[in-house]
Amino acid sequence: MSEHVNKKQRKHKRGSGKDRVLAAYVDILLADGVAAATLDEVARQAEISKGGLLHHFPSKEDLNAGLMDLLVELNEADIERTVAQGDDLISAYLTSSSIAQDEYSSVFMAALKLAGSNIPEVDRTLQQVLQSWHQTLLEHLPDPALAKIVHLIGDGLYLHAIVGSNPGNGVQELIQALEELSEHKTDCGEDA
């Protein structure tokens, strides 16, 4: 949990009531799980009245929808940041995938805690987030198979990062091997 945004830092950061509620919901899901994430507990940790919470999120379903909207928003920003790093998308994507110490990662982990809990919107949103990365890679890499390989390797690196298992120096070797594969595929395509 130490790799996720520090709970106390976020709790005392003032923001809109809606932002504080979502931050508290993420914190509770990460620290204590789905069962502990009652509306009363979310309001308490957000330092907002229950009425204030219900103003922003009239139901638990609305709170879950708000969390999914935040996940999509953060995912889109992460994609934009990664693509903006230039021509070397493989390196940018895999390097980004090996780091999980930001708000996006905390929100993603909170959404994973809700996965499989009979909330179809959660599963759909997680699928949407994964698919948006795959689509981005397809748009920027020369071969669909290479895009899928890069995507799955990135998912593996991210899984290791979010559970605190550092993939170490192997990331650079993976990047180099994939870039060589990409160059080889491009060279073979030009010869045909």
From TrEMBL:
A Pfam family assignment: TetR_N
Domain HTH tetR-type: residue ranges: 15-75
Source organism, top-level taxon: Bacteria
InterPro entries xrefs: Homeodomain-like_sf, HTH-type_TetR-like_transc_reg, HTH_TetR, TetR_CgmR_C
The entry's DNA-binding region: 38-57
Cited PROSITE patterns: HTH_TETR_2
Keywords for this protein: DNA-binding, Transcription, Transcription regulation
Protein name, as recorded: TetR/AcrR family transcriptional regulator
Provenance organism: Micrococcoides hystricis
